[in-house]
Amino acid sequence: MxxxxxxxxxxxxxxxxxxxxATGQIAHSMYEREVDQRSTPEFxxxxxxxxxxxxxxxxxTRVAFQGETKAMLAQSGLPVSYEIASEISHGVFGVSSxxxxxxxxxxxxxxxxxxxxxxxxxxxxxxxxxxxxxDYHLTVAPFSLSEASxxxxxxxxxxxxxxxxxxxxxxxxxxPALAFNDDSGQQLKVDSVSGSGSGYLQDGLWIGEQSLSxxxxxxxxxxxxxxxxxxxxxxxGNQLVASESTSSRQLNNTNQLTVGTMALPNNTQWRNLxxxxxxxxxxxxxxxxxxxxxxxxxEGGAPVSMEAFDQALVQLLQSGLSIDLSPANLxxxxxxxxxxxxxxxxxxxxxxxxxxxxxxxxxxGDLDISVPNGVLTQSPWQAKIQDxxxxxxxxxxxxxxxxxxxIEGNQVVTSxxxxxxxxxxxxxxxx
Length: 431
Known about the structure:
The chain is α+β, with helices and mostly antiparallel strands. The protein has helices at 2-37, 67-75, 105-114, 284-299, 306-318, 356-361, 379-391, 422-430, and strands at 43-52, 56-65, 81-90, 94-101, 122-129, 134-140, 143-147, 150-154, 157-163, 169-182, 187-202, 205-220, 226-242, 249-263, 269-283, 321-332, 335-345, 363-372, 394-396, 400-408, 411-413, 419-421.
């Protein structure tokens, strides 16, 4: 019993003692696998060196950017490839690494302008479990960069989160302050920027949720005119779902922007802006093809086939979709403005020719707009309101002007059944 008990303890200690060496081998395998798998159309990874030890290893990886990113870096006078030095520690449950940019003379000449005296302004801490999941924390040191007649300053940027072995990502970031100004008088000041996201990239489409918020933003131009925004939030989501009628996949897209207050150049204040725009039942194969073609066009490589782009767009429309703008609200000094719109494009049979008339015939929807009387006081709008009232589209109270309409194919229909051609109605509203 005694020998068995302490023999088991000794065996456990031996396993723990040997495990760093085992994880050292596994870490090397993980590293090589990640280098092979993480290359994308935007960048490639290449192992430069990997020196494995008992408790720690050192690696150097070369990152070479391609396509649009490469062109943008080159145009900005920045290197298009970088080396990352990694100090890798082997533990019982996994591996961790501290990663920094290798500061070449070329890169030092650039970074010392923004980070004088800081040899490692960008650092990535990475902890990888044996399951392949990783926790990461990226920090970019505060900087102040002055060139010619302009200056850009920023506080420390922090990005952290986790990524699993399937590439599903969770992330949060924060940037307490950002400011720009130049000698002409232009200024930008942003306070307390933060964001989060979770999801994965598939066929060029981001599947998941993302959010961005900022406490305050202040813009001013050369004439001294300024715009101030408070409490801004943006939420974006893409959800992959199965079609109810077919075996195909669909994408549901949601977007919502909210702004607490907007102080305009003329000392007017708008409040409580909320705009929610959803696009549902989007054909997934068409959307992924559009994303692929758009990426190729942005990279500036092989010429993009406009015929292929048109075919993908036609497929998207023929597969049917719905668009909702609801709510869309804003409080102005005269009162509350609200817009609610719902549009359906019915699924249609694929044909050799698809034109605008076919699309219009598949459209149906509802439109409701409410505007305070004091907003539409100028003569062009007063005349339009009278015409719309006579046609049955508009009703007016002592506070608001309300427009209500239904879209039925190529016609817009009032509540009393009066129909007007859709194109004519749109042209009347825009002119």
